[in-house]
Amino acid sequence: MADSPEWERTRARLRFGQRLCGTVVRVPRPGAIGIAVDVGLPVEGFVDAALLPGDAERWPAEGTEAEFEVWWAGERPRLRLKPVDPRFLRDDFDRYLQRFRPGRPEEIGRPVPLR
């Protein structure tokens, strides 16, 4: 895991909606937590279960290569991701987006805040 200065440097280069290719490296509790993704950065990528399909059988398995978007990055050295492939995204994503991140479309391309 990256130390704080390394995470700050990495986070400063990230943009909301930025696409990254990655490989699913862990699915610790299918249907419950989310998936860990290696996107080639010094921090772990993570897709929260709330963004994945309700049916855990549709979650990408370990070893799956796919494209992901930068969803969020906070102070904790972990990059939050959203699957690009609709097969790996919750079925009601548009409704979810309107409810929980209605400003998301305007965020696309903007830098991820450093604080």
TrEMBL record:
Q: Which organism is it from?
A: Nocardiopsis composta
> By what name is this protein known?
Putative RNA-binding protein (Virulence factor B family)
| UniProt superkingdom | Bacteria
